[in-house]
Amino acid sequence: MTTGTQTPGAETVRVADYLAGELAGAGVTHVFGVGGANIEDLYDAVHRGGTVRGVVAKHEFSAVTMADGYARTTRGLGVVAATSGGGAMNLVPGLAEAYASRVPLLALVGQPPTVQEGHGAFQDTSGKGDSFDAGEVFAPISRFCARVEDADSLVELLPRAMAAARTEPRGPAVLLLPKDVQQARIRLSGRDPVPAPVVPAQAASSPAAPSSDVVIPPTAPADSSAPAVRLDDAAVTEVSDVLRGADTVLVIAGEGVAAADARAELSELARNLGAWVAVTPDAKDVFDNRDPRFAGVAGVMGHANVEHCLRRADVCLLVGTRLPLLARGGLERALAATEVVCLDPERPYVPGTALGGDLRDALRAVTGRLPSDPRACPRHPGPRPAPTEGPDSPAVRGRTVSYPQALAAVEAALPEDAHVFVDAGNTGASAVHLLPAPRHGRFVVALGMGGMGYTFGAGIGAALATGRRTYVLAGDGAFFMHGAEVHTAVEHSAPVTFVVFNNNAHAMCVLREEFLQGGVRGDDLFGRTDIAAGMAAAFPSLDVTGAEDAAQLREALLRGNTGGGPAFVALDCDPREVPPFLPFQSFAEAGGRAERADRADNKESSDERRVVHVG
């Protein structure tokens, strides 16, 4: 441990208090996580400091998604803190989602004291003494990962980690914090002091933490980030020339537009080009879904109108997206026949002319080289819903609510400034396709890893960060994975409305088995559960509704909008209702089950039948 020369009267603080103060100074308002022996000093510092709010989740995965939802709705740095061992390992899937989706997070991960490393310490992940190395686990799913060996190292590493999380490509940064380093004392020198913690009366006589004094030199602000990459002028000219020469343009906008807060710049460019605007499945909120120029959602959860517009376009302009498979599924042929231009810090997955750098700067630079008079947008059919099995069909007959009915009820109740978090599976595909994004809120689908249960934590993090009503739309499979976080929403009076579509199955797997594997095995069909009754019994103060039809669903949602805390609605759906998901559409349109009977005699290739495979 590095120590400094004592100076009489110098102010000292624990490293944990210094860290909490730096988070507050960087504008962080919440730290999400789960406690434990090797991270308890940080939680104590957060509590004593009184500026940053500590939120304890029920599971570390959900703690990461809380920080993720916080970051996506505030465009700030999400922070998660967890202890060593199993707690640390539970962070992995959430950090992997943030890495793949370019979400800026800081993970503060407790570790055993340094003197115990390599000597059989409980939950030792130092890589010493034949223990495995946590750094090697987190490094592939982080933009920056470092073990903090002493207090001096933290002073250097913290601003670097924060900057790395916020620099393109954004993503998680991880600091591994041994317990004795958190407890060490450091002396402030040449910088504004960390605000003195408010010490509870019962803690005033607590034994002092082990001391190790370190002189802290002046440093850059903790929220500093790397300077923006300068735009390549030749690339700006090339892109502008291509767009200026195009008669018709289809824009496909992605999540990067939201991350860069570039909605206004996107709209101005589209207006000047007279372009149609489609969005990727994870970016419905980046362009007004009710605008006449809105072409719909691109890809496997999307609208046929996007392909219609793409085939008519001279140029396809990608903005804030690399166009991954879920966003380009079904469009490959049309893309191959169309000139592609991409504005994004990273190169696209499809061939085309690319302009990197800051997205807002790129949009402004290109728009500045186009004629300033807006062009008329060519007529187009608009994003009409794909055909699905209706509410009177055998698949959805009986005591169930169809996805179109349910999502129409959600649309009718959804506040314009609400945030919407949509989980994986049939519920997600249906919501992406059918539910317009709120005009002034986020519409988030976590497609980086596509992990079930993401929304329960993410919705809570967003609601606590912004104070806005937040809707979580999830299936029963996602609920059974991480729905216990409703408890966290109840404890913190978070304004979250949870809507659980219960088909008593992993229904997307059921349909994959039926359409792609020749029959249903039954593994993914579950016994019926009354989720609403269970939640009402578990949480008497929670507003719970078991909706039997769309009218009851809408009434419950409107009632939830007027409350200050959480609300919960469950409704029954049919596991064999076919969602608007392109890999299933060819089967549904051809009669699905009848088509299966003669599949063995049908020699058409998947390409000829326009079957799109995902997974």
Keywords:
36% helix; 16% strand; globular; alpha/beta; six-stranded parallel beta sheet; 615 residues; 25 helices
Topology:
Elements: E1 12-14, H1 15-25, E2 30-34, H2 40-49, E3 53-56, H3 60-74, E4 78-82, H4 86-89, H5 92-101, E5 105-111, H6 134-138, E6 144-147, H7 151-166, E7 172-178, H8 179-183, E8 185-188, E9 215-216, H9 233-244, E10 249-253, H10 255-259, H11 263-273, E11 276-279, E12 294-297, H12 304-312, E13 315-319, H13 325-328, H14 332-336, E14 339-343, E15 353-355, H15 359-368, H16 403-413, E16 419-422, H17 426-434, E17 443-445, H18 454-466, E18 470-475, H19 476-482, H20 486-491, E19 496-502, H21 507-516, H22 531-538, E20 543-547, H23 550-562, E21 567-572, H24 582-589, H25 593-597
Parallel strand pairs: 2-3, 2-4, 4-5, 5-7, 6-7, 8-9, 10-11, 10-13, 11-12, 13-14, 14-15, 16-17, 16-18, 18-19, 19-21, 20-21
Antiparallel strand pairs: 1-8
Describe the fold and architecture.
With 615 residues, the chain is an alpha/beta fold. The chain is built from 25 helices and 21 strands. Strands 3-2-4-5-7-6 form a six-stranded parallel beta sheet, sandwiched between helices. Strands 12-11-10-13-14-15 form a six-stranded parallel beta sheet, sandwiched between helices. Helix 11 (263-273) runs parallel beside helix 15 (359-368) and helix 16 (403-413) packs across helix 17. The protein starts with 11 loop residues before the first strand and ends in an 18-residue tail after the last helix.
